[in-house]
Amino acid sequence: MTALIRHLVFLIVLLCSFLFSRAQEHQQSTLHVLLQQKDSLLFDAAFNQCDTDTMEALFTEDFEFYHDKGGATFGREAFLAPTRERCARLVPDAAQPAKRILTEGSLKVYPLYKNGDLYGAIQHGIHSFQFLNEDNKYQQGDTAKFTHVWVLQDGHWKIKRELSYDHVSYQEKNSK
Q1: 27: region left, alpha or beta (phi > 0 left; psi from -120 to 50 alpha)
Q2: Cα gap 105→19, rounded to integer Å
Q3: What whole-number distance in Å separates Cα of residue 108 and Cα of residue 36?
Q4: In this structure, what is the dihedral angle of CA atoms 36, 128, 148, 48, given to the nearest 10 degrees?
Q5: In 3D, which of 18, 20, 2, 32 has the Cα closest to residue 157?
Q6: Is the pLDDT of residue 16 over 50?
Q7: pLDDT of residue 19
Q8: Is residue 6 in some structural domain?
Q9: d(CA 73, CA 124)
Q10: Which of 24, 44, 58, 163 gives 147 a disulfide partner, CB atoms 3.0 to 4.6 angstroms apart?
Q11: Of residues 175 and 46, which shows the higher confidence score?
């Protein structure tokens, strides 16, 4: 390979790296802040409030959930049914059996455009979970990655697809 070709390849790789690194929204951008708020709202509704009405409003009707340990769930109602059942069994004012913690700085947002119009976004992050043990104290659970595909539907941001993957238990993580 000649020196000129090597330099051209290097410049192309450098340009592509720059372009792809610019695709992610800045953490202070309106879109990033909005979807971070939606993420917090979703997990607060699921883990702290047992607010399935809020969860329902955040998912499209044809929502799909893919989990590396629990398999796939198709449809918003199929996904929400176990949460509705779990929430119905909870004792009022009791501690939530699990909580979710977003890993600081891990949330990334990538806008999706068609013909220059924003129609959706990909949100990616890392979170961990804590669960109540038999002494009613929170203990460390899994850490996992998640990816949400958000779409603008009738002016509202909704999750159309969710991926939950690369689950690592607290014990596995600390034994490495």
Answers
A1: alpha
A2: 21
A3: 9
A4: -60
A5: 32
A6: no
A7: 43
A8: no
A9: 19
A10: 163
A11: 46
